[in-house]
Give the backbone structure.
Amino acid sequence: MSSERWYQKSITSVVADLKSNTEEGISAKEVKARLEQYGLNEIQESDRRSLLSIFLGQLKDFMIFILIAAAVISGIVGELQDTIAIVVILLINATIGTVQEYRAEKAVAALKAMSEPEVQVRRDGQKKIIPSNQLVPGDIVLLEAGNIISADLRIIESFDLQVDESALTGESLPIEKNAYIVLENDLHTAEQSNMVFKGTMVTNGRAVCIVVATAMQSKIGKIALLLEQGEILRTPLQRRLAKFGKRLGIAVLAICALIFVLGLLRGEPITLMFLTAVTLAVAAIPEALPAVVAISLAIGAHKMSKHKALIRRLPAVETLGSVTYICSDKTGTLTENKMHLDFIFYEDKRYSTLSEVSTKDRTGKLIGRAMALNNDCQVDNNQVIIGEPTEVAIYNAAHEGGYNKAELEKLFPRVAEIPFDSTRKCMTTLHKSSDGVVAFVKGAPEKVLALCQYKTENEMEVLLEKADLLAAEGYRVLAFAVRNFDLLPTDVCSDKIERDFCFLGFAGLIDPPRQEAAQSVKLCRQAGITPVMITGDHVGTARAIAIRLGIAIESDRVL
């Protein structure tokens, strides 16, 4: 069942088409029938090769064919020692490759089994937790922050839902989702805001969804199918050995033929010259070469394993030595795939952390409180911070700067809030204080600055220009502001509350480069390899990260 056009249908239509029930889910009997129809919710791989097929696969090489021919000829002419030597070398070569591939196959299978998530569903009117491979189209799935999404789903209820789709689309920022819209145009995966997809993760909010596609019919399943159908290319070493084997074979045959003919011209017996030519041919073939290559590659695979790299097939080790360009995704590969607060800007000064801000500075203290209190992050029983990545970054920065949310909430308990929405692009929280009620707002600079009062006419334009310059450096910029009330307003709505604020400052966030990435880029350049970063992010973000990593310099162009 394909998920191509589900985003263009209403919730009622989707549920009806899938013969499901949003409150009851589907029955156990129906689940059984659909499992038989659609199969397990697993990405299918080509059939695992048997030990014998792996072993025989090691012998599919032109150089090996020449050695087999040499062994046969040696046996025919009575050179049994040569035959035995060649056969032993072939067995050693094939055994090394077989052992490496078999172990790698088992390791990959074990990793796959360990990563199989569970999912919460409604079935027969009850909530159940099931293995994700048991999902079928029509299942009602319950999602919350931290869940890995195990199938393509149409959202039927959503509450502040945000999803990290970087694994599928490469976009580093979470995508806001909305169950209650119906999209009309033919849209790209990243634009289908009423859908969530297999392999992505919920970062904020919760939702009720219905399964519309599983296994190979999901978006990621179709990508896997394309990869499975791709041609397996021979490595540079394999191509060079094959070319060497052909040239060697032709040269040996030519020389042996020449010696055979010259011997006959001298009047030598034909049998003697034939045996001489064959013996010369066997002697000229470097039978130990494949074994030497296999042992060298096995040593390389062993060294790679110490660096936590799993080599599935031995020749893959050699391809690393033939690389001239490395094209890498940015998000999650060169970067950590998690937001980090890089600076705080206020009163025309830039600070790396809240700790740099003087505790006697009233504005600095208010920014610290705003970052801690105007924040929906929660800490679970395992001390894991749960929330949207941007809020987690702000929470961590505030905590590290000495602004503990739990302690501050005892002094300034939240009494009301106006949640974030995509139209207002800001979030306001109201807190009881010793002087009455204090309100903090955070959000997009252009939205928050429009809610503030100013001492001069062009102050807002200057601040907006500064925010634009910071964004051009690759940062996600948030603005903070504060307002005081004598009492909690009776009507807590955006029209009444979100005005007459006092601007506090900006916070700049970025998905930081991995610590080891810059060193890797440096090593690539030393090895003569050109690193290239490919990303769908903003040009400013791409340039900033590339410069930090040493991939680019200021004068380079971004394409």
Notes: The mean pLDDT is 84. The longest helix spans residues 80-114.
